[in-house]
């Protein structure tokens, strides 16, 4: 590991941490001043590589890319050039009037990246739009195939699928749903009780939530095997189908590796295969939300999370390659264009796409900015860079280091309940009691305190969240550096984050 920072004495606001002092070298601002804050937030001057540069104050090491977006880091000339070139050629063209080369190329690239498992792509601007489209295409598909009674969706507690009404309805994120219950399609009396096997759902809603796949809080005993755990999860899903009536279920919707709602929780081996088997048995579709965990973020076998979560003994059904559990629909965003443009996509698998081709069906859906050429130019350049520079391989290698260092440095801390993740997608869950796993009172805002301490005192930006223990309780931070991160930077991130964590709990 790199040079350690001493956390024994708390640096004052004016005094920079010793490690952070090195970061001042290329900051032109007055470094003796604390960061300028408007409503508590630093005012940003620029961003370059792995660093944010506030208007006044030393640079901040970016360990989360905003909300897991900046997968290539900041200020990449090649992407800026590609965006500018597209803007010079033309900035906007309606998808109803023209075919645009970058959009066509990006769609082809996306389909190829799935090894042809996904056969159609719709390019959009946000994760919420892509998830909303996934819900609508599911319903329209079942209308086309003569099964209009399939109107129920099964999703999971502690999940987030977006902020628009359909996407929020399918989300199981307690606090983000709460203010809008009256609008959520129609109101769903979701108990959101993660720790029970209570498959709460309201019969008046199309949206039903079952417990997430969260081994840290759900294994019956520490020694419960993966197979036994997965068998219980499968039974929960089967029970939800049975309760709703299997022929009324349109789709199961899930994040393969749960992001902000659960703090980077990968599935237990065998889980995705079990979910797909249940979907297939009852004729429902499987929808993956890879908005946060996709496009290389979890490293491994390919750019899509499902390619990286392969299971050795999974033979697959007709849609799958051996070892990988392929979805019917898939949403991607965030790392898709790395923040250089607001980009997302809905990918359509063979079952639905081939029906559409064969029957000449067109998805009744469209946004003004769908298939935006500048968005496509940015995403294409980002993805080509990821491919050309072998960055998914770096995600795998640096991700292993990141996970190991986080566990070494924080695993034994009395208030760290769990360190979990995959690739460059790692979460640290904080608990009041390590043995009982009791979370902190939400009002203490423990994760936010860690975030604030990390950015103000240790000049490292992490993403914080609440709700990972269910019902809005439970605190976690997420560490999601750019795919270009080096071992040295990984060590630096871990040390700074660990110092911030230690200080916050020392003072609590
Ligand atoms: C898993 C997941 N799905 C969907 C969304 C919504 O994406 P957006 O904020 O781009 O609309 C998010 C955003 O954080 C997300 O993390």
From TrEMBL:
Residues 1-39, 184-206 are annotated as: Disordered. One of its GO terms (cellular component) is cytosol. Residues 1-12 have a biased composition (Polar residues). It comes from the Eukaryota. The keyword Transferase applies. InterPro entries: Aminotrans_3, PyrdxlP-dep_Trfase, PyrdxlP-dep_Trfase_major, PyrdxlP-dep_Trfase_small. Pfam families: Aminotran_3. The keyword Transmembrane helix does not apply. Keywords: Pyridoxal phosphate, Transferase. Residues 26-39, 188-206 have a biased composition (Low complexity). GO terms for molecular function: pyridoxal phosphate binding; transaminase activity. Belongs to the class-III pyridoxal-phosphate-dependent aminotransferase family. This is PLP-dependent transferase. It comes from Parathielavia hyrcaniae.
